[in-house]
Amino acid sequence: MCQLSEFVLMDTSIGCILLMVAAVYVVLQVFRFIFADADFTMLWAASFGKKPESQLRGRVVWITGASSGIGEELAYQLAQIGAQLVLSARRQNELERVKLECLGRSRLQEEDILVLPLDLLDRKSHEAKTSAVLKHFGKIDVLINNGGRSQRSLCLETNMEVYQALMELNFLGTVSITKHVLPHMVQRGMGTVTTVSSVVGIAGAPLATGYAASKHALQGFFNSLRIELADSPGITISTICPGPVQSQIVQNAFTEKLSKSVSQAGDQQHKMTTSRCVRLILCGLANRVKEMWIGQQPFLVFFYVWQYTPTLAWFVTGRLGQKRIKNFKAGLDADTAYFTKPKVA
Known about the structure:
Helices cover about 50% and strands about 10% of the residues. The chain has about 350 residues and is of the alpha/beta class.
């Protein structure tokens, strides 16, 4: 009888210890999430996964939208790693500037960086552009679809031409480049196609109806393409969903008219730094992460809320969306609605 009691007490003690360990683990994960700037898979890849320095060195990486923002920072960090680069955007002078900076920051030689001006809207030229890359380097290991523009305008005030331009540029232009590069990767049996989507590729947001539609289209296209390529395990299709990042995306955004630019971009300092965003992207690429959620709080929690509790997500975004519109009308950066009270114009 005494031995039985001892066994019961021992089992109870072990159970209590396991329960305490589990509780501590949960508390640590909650604490970690509060200060996180990417989903748990991404954080694991950044801390314990394969390093970009070993996985991307010597790779041929084609970056669209490489003249500014995330694309420009991708070029700098990839150059420092030792990747060979194809830099594409419309403005050749800006691409040449980025190339010179890459050469100054790395051990790359002139021939390791190809400046290739590209207009995503000129889809008839994409076959020739792809051939130019293959002629110069002989292969394309990674395609980073980063080119595109955002939007800052209300639906009722926006011309249809703006919606058409957003879909032509962000969606069809990206699909066109991908379709020309993909056969080469399938033939080789390896390669990575990475596309910069957005948090609004998963959730909606006011002032970005057309932009969100184009990013939702990209999500659907590449999620379907990934399944189609299941018989090509060497090919990775990944999408990057960043929250607000410090870049020129607001300054370059479409407004209600094609001929009108954003009058005032507002303060961008509350957003994630471009360098941190790009470092996380490279860690995701090195570890073949299929979908990357990148963003500071409270944007990161939005991903999870939309994924697992959409009813709550509708309520929260509805409230915050009104603040976003008020900030926009007050001449502030719309995203400050998630951090500060909107000012009266």
